[in-house]
Amino acid sequence: MSPLIEINDPALSGPNTILIDARAGQDANQRYLAGHLKNAAFVDLDKDLASKVTDAAIGGRHPLPHIDDFAVLLGKLGITPQSHVVVYDDKAAAFGGARFWWMLKAIGHQNVQVLNGGLQAAKNAGIELSTEEYTPTATASYPVPDVFEGTVTIEQTGAAASDEGYLVIDVRETPRYQGLTEPIDLIAGHIPGALNLPYIYNLDAEGKYLPADTLKKLYEDTIGNVQADHVIVHCGSGVTACHTLLGMAHAGISGPKLYVGSWSEWSRRDLPIGSTKI
Predict the structure, then answer these.
(1) Among 19, 138, 143, 178, which residue carries the largest CB count within 10 Å?
(2) Distance between CA atoms of residues 235 and 196, nearest Å
(3) Per-residue model confidence (pLDDT) at position 1
(4) Long-range pairs, 124-130, Cβ under 8 A, ≥24
């Protein structure tokens, strides 16, 4: 199954399809109520797809929730191992959309796709949006493994950044990577040895993922001879990194890992900082 689904795909309204609107921000719920796909249940990135931050130096600004709490959430959403889940957000999957996709894949759920182009694709297609809150039919907690698969620690990321057999990719905007600006975290710069490939490179002018073969060339030119499972992707807090992991899956590249803590954790641990002066 492709990790992406188009707005005109009949599977969007299939009998076993569960739609998830996964937005972020303090007004995420208000934006959801202002217009969402019919029968899409709301999931809040900060409240549902991350645990409460007690110290961003340990886990970053969007640490993963406890896996058992995620299992309960999935049950409340009516998601079972047999469900076809389609998720979107209002920022071309760069917020909660790709994060929810990655979390489901990380617990072994295979039948999950992200709406290519997100909410804007629905608007462009002239689809009437709903302003009524949708409450799904709950089921039992989802059967989950002990941990989310496919993550690496801050120690593993630091070691990989200085190992020629590994590659650490930073998907933040280039000025943030270069240390020229930092609008969110306390210190500007990047993990020394990390390569910059902004997640926005995944998208075309309409906010849709580029064709699989185009992205495959982009990623392969970036990765070079490094094994795919030796690639680590990170961002500011482990959210937009999932956008690139989704793009890699779309391009047929499997195995890259997610450093969840990302720059928000690294920059708070008194570790070496890389920067580029212009």
Answers:
(1) 19
(2) 10
(3) 87
(4) 124/7, 124/206, 125/7, 125/8, 127/7, 127/37, 128/38, 129/35, 129/36, 129/37, 129/38, 130/35, 130/36, 130/37, 130/38, 130/39, 130/40
**Res. 32: pLDDT tops 80:** yes
- pLDDT at residue 146 tops 80: yes
CA distance 105 to 133: 27
Domain 4-124, CATH among 3.50.50.60, 3.90.45.10, 3.30.43.10, 3.40.250.10: 3.40.250.10
Active site residues: 235
Domain boundaries, the chain: 4-124, 154-266
The count of residues in the chain is 278
Domains 4-124 and 154-266 agree in fold: yes
The tens digit of pLDDT for each residue in 52-97 reads 999 999 999 999 999 999 999 999 999 999 999 999 999 999 999 9
Residue 225: left if φ>0, alpha if ψ -120 to 50, beta else—which one?
alpha
Q: Which two tokens stand for residue 80?
A: 């079972």
Tens of pLDDT along 199-251? 999 999 999 999 999 999 999 999 999 999 999 999 999 999 999 999 999 99
Question: Can you give the pTM of this predicted structure?
Answer: 0.97
pLDDT of residue 275: 80
| Domain 154-266: assigned CATH number | 3.40.250.10
